Structure to design on (486 residues):
């Protein structure tokens, strides 16, 4: 690879968007060419300045509310379009013509019956499907809830430190297992801190990492058996989840970063684990 | 459950004059299913798309550089997204939603331009404040942060947009291509140009190489 090609590809290299082979070639060139490696470092520093300096404009709470209420306003109009509007008008006029007392008991009886039927339909058709999906779905929901709660309640961490040697001993004293803790700042995932959490009725470790302006919760608890399970990726309620088991521990990473970022995170974490 | 009961109530009473109860029941169920489907769609839309509200607002604010416009655009984009939610089949809602936010934002920008409205971009606020480049270390990060923001704000739309999508939203090249309607092969070169333009701005503004 010559300098011209290297400079052309340096942005893709910086963004981790090159294929493995091109990656190797540019790395070799950067090792050998001080001019290009200087250009690379300048570009990297610029990117860091942007990622740490540019503000992230979060949505104000009232915007969420006004969006939700305008969405609600959309739904009835779609449901009761055309026909039902007339029917509803008809109902009102008819209702006023007749003594309410006669009808009230019957109406509520019908409503109750309808509710029971609806409940029965739900019980027969929906519940078995939930069960069929197994515990993963339920667990994913729990993990996401915990992730969201950690961001909302300003209770992201119990121990806020980017130093793994502070976070790990703290967690070790609170738990009856010793989860691995690594700072992954060099891979673009700085450690923010650790937290004690409660998933599936047992205490678990939650490590908090940052990716740009987004947070990743990594939940860790002991694996129940030594069996190897294929890695799992889930997308649920707009969040990404990655699950893997490595040696003694169960890992679930939850975040709203992209799936590829979460895979990068997993690789970065696994790289730190001692080879077995 | 409260709304469902109400729906059954209204639907049922519509046919109240009919004497056959069985007929009434089929009406009740028919309406109930319809409403449940709608509610279900809204619920799944919200669970899939509301988590990306911050991303939507962030992009809109960077594109429009004005809070009121950003809110209007996000609000409208969510309504549009809901109406075309049937066409969403992917698992990653963020690029899909951001595409709609971006289109809505550009529609507003275009409208403002053709109407010859005065730009909402507040030059005063975005003009660089050289005086305050104080050496105090405590202020250094804030200061740098301010300079970076101002420099990005001054970039042409297409450069500002691609930097935000990449560095604040962390989208992949493929996702950026989808959102910004670019050929996948051109994302890297546009990012490179955006970065060198930004470097140029920072250099001339601060005399400092970042």
């Amino acid at each position: 690879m010559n300098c011209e090609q290297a400079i052309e590809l340096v942005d893709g290299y910086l963004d981790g968007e090159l294929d493995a082979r091109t990656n190797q070639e540019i790395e070799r060139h950067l090792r050998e060419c001080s001019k290009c490696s200087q250009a690379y470092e300048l570009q990297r520093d610029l990117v860091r300045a942007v990622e740490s300096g540019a503000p992230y404009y979060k949505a104000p709470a009232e915007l969420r509310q006004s969006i939700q209420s305008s969405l609600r306003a959309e739904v009835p109009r779609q449901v009761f379009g055309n026909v039902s509007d007339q029917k509803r008008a008809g109902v009102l006029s008819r209702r006023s013509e007749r003594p309410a007392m006669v009808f009230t008991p019957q109406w509520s009886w019908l409503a109750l019956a309808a509710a029971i039927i609806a409940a029965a339909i739900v019980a027969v058709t929906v519940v078995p499907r939930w069960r069929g999906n197994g515990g993963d779905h339920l667990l994913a929901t729990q993990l996401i809830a915990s992730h969201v709660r950690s961001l909302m309640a300003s209770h992201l961490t119990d121990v806020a430190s980017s130093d793994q040697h502070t976070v790990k001993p703290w967690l070790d004293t609170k738990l009856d297992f010793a989860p691995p803790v690594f700072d992954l700042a060099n891979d673009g995932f700085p450690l923010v801190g650790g937290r004690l959490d409660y998933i599936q009725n047992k205490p678990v470790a939650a490590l908090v990492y940052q990716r740009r302006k987004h947070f990743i919760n990594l939940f860790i608890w002991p694996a129940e058996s030594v069996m190897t399970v294929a890695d799992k990726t889930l997308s649920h309620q707009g969040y990404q989840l990655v699950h893997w088991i490595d040696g003694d521990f169960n890992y679930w990473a939850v975040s709203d970063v992209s799936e590829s970022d979460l895979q990068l995170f997993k690789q970065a974490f696994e790289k730190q684990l001692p080879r077995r | 459950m409260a709304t469902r009961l109400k729906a059954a109530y209204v639907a049922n009473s519509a046919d109240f004059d009919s004497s056959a109860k069985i007929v009434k029941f089929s009406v009740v169920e028919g309406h109930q299913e319809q409403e449940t489907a709608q509610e279900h769609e809204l619920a799944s839309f919200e669970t899939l798309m509301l988590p990306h509200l911050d991303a939507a607002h962030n992009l809109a604010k960077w594109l429009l550089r004005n809070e009121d416009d950003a809110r209007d655009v996000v609000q409208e984009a969510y309504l549009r997204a809901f109406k075309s939610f049937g066409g969403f089949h992917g698992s990653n809602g963020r690029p899909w939603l951001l595409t709609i936010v971006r289109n809505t934002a550009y529609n507003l920008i275009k409208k403002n331009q053709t109407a010859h409205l005065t730009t909402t971009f507040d030059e005063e606020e975005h003009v660089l404040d050289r005086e305050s480049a104080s050496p105090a270390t405590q202020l250094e990060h804030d200061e740098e942060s301010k300079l970076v923001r101002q420099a990005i704000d001054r970039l042409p739309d297409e450069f500002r947009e691609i930097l935000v999508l990449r560095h604040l939203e962390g989208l992949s090249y493929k996702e950026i291509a989808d959102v910004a309607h670019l050929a996948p092969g051109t994302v890297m070169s546009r990012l490179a140009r955006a970065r060198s333009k930004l470097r140029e701005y920072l250099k001339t503004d601060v005399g400092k190489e970042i």
